[in-house]
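Key idea: predict the complex, not the pieces.
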Amino acid sequence: MKVEAMMKTEVISIRKNVSIEEAKKLMESHRIRHLPIVDEQKNLVGIVSDRDLVLDRIPNQKSPSDIEVQSVMVKEVITCHPYDFVEELLSIFYEERIGCIPVVKDNEIVGMITERDMLYTLIQLTGAHQPSSQFEVKVENVSGRLADVTAVIRNHNVNINSVLVYPGETDVTKVLVLRVQTMNPIPIINHLKSEGYNVLWPDTSGEFV
Amino acid sequence: MTKPIFVFSDQLLSYKFSNHHPFNPLRFQMAYELLKETGILSDDQIVKPRKATDEEILLVHNKDYLNAIKKAGLGQLPESLRSSFGLDTDDTPIFKDMHEASSWLVGATLTATEQVFEGKTKKALSLGGGLHHGFRGRASGFCIYNDSSIAIEYMKQKYNARVLYIDTDAHHGDGVQWAFYDDPDVCTFSIHETGRYLFPGTGNVSEKGAGKGYGYSFNLPVDAFTEDDSWIPILEEAIDEIVKFFKPDIIISQNGVDAHYWDPLTHLSLTMKSYRKIPELVNRAADRYTEGRWIAVGGGGYDIWRVVPRAWSMIWAEMNGIELQGTLPEAWLTKWQEKAPVDLPSSWDDGADLYPSIPRKQEICDKNHVMLQRTLQHIRNEKKSV
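Result:
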């Protein structure tokens, strides 16, 4: 999945001579926590977050209406491109400990991505936003296992909403997490069990949840 | 004092996908006959349903969807169009005259609604209804038209009512919740097995409504293997606080009975003890806060032999202030035991040895209690600040 598919394209931006007070108001009225700062050509020159605008970081004596955002903005902005992959962005958010990444194309800002957008994308990837049942299958870490399992599901005329492959506790196994579009996954589960698969699904012993 | 009414006719038994589909109308007939044999359902309390009109179905559903269901029932919906209406699956496959069958179920719940609002009764039972997974434009989870959503919209428009919907099916009542998610005049409350594994996956405690309806959707997801001892007290607290907070004109309760230990589709461990208690709690809330007005509908329930007839009978008994004790009528047991693939229980209550004890019991209890706190947090905070 590419960045352009999930970014917000209505970007609220400001110029560098805007006061801190105004920037704060803008953040509050749009319920956002980051404002990119652009020049006449819409080129990105900096970014401020709500934390950059808190008073104890601002030089004394002056009031927030007299200070321009350029004095507190971050100039070395971490950006991404609309064609970058979502997976790459996840690492950037994690490693750089930031909350927002502007999307830049030909020097111009074309979108914004926040941590929250990333989480929503993850929800979509898990398929949990559509009516479905979930079960997990622990399989050997060898080629063809996913195809074997999905072939069983195909026999039951059930659509698969999502597939995630988790690493197992060791390299020997993997866990397939499947969301299937049915209220009654029991026939599939029984079928998989009868073929010897280790299906992780709450059983009556109460040991597994 | 008016008598409760029971909506029933043979047309309601025509909602049937296939012989091997888990959603089987035979359970409704079994419940009806059980009540008859027990002698607590008199003919003057039975009201025949009317069929819902297209206009009424369109109170909630899209026109495209209605037309697709009509065509599908005549075998005229092209295969390429089926998946976008949710009709390409084994959950909600096409069956002959499915529009008519579904309209009867909606009509049954509307009949119950009219009986109550026109003052003919305070309490009405429509066991054919409770199809809470039906979406505006899509069939889902064994449900075509969402009778409860339609009845709620009907009550709002025709009688200007504030409606509390209580859903105790093991699955989240997603269709009804999403239909009124931004509506402050309809409050939905669903207690269900967590969506971690179980269909439909939604019903998280954080789903509290949107816009003006924020704070009017309540979800209480409980852990797999939850038992009576945990379910009953948290349900009691939740109903009590929600009804006080919302002050409805009427309660409509969805009575899926698939949280029973024997139900093949879910992982909860309730017994008849809970199915005695659920209608009692709802009835008490109605008597205290809605001048007794209560409409009960059916819902899920896939152990049709051992669970559904007994559990649904409890709702009717509660409405009529009757306590069912001891053994089931001999004639009913004899008739249905011949057809049943399992041994039918002979008494109204389940034995204490229904299932082996659950090792994680205390942990499950504690987790459910924390969840209850989160479900009710926003109304509890509001109370404190007043």
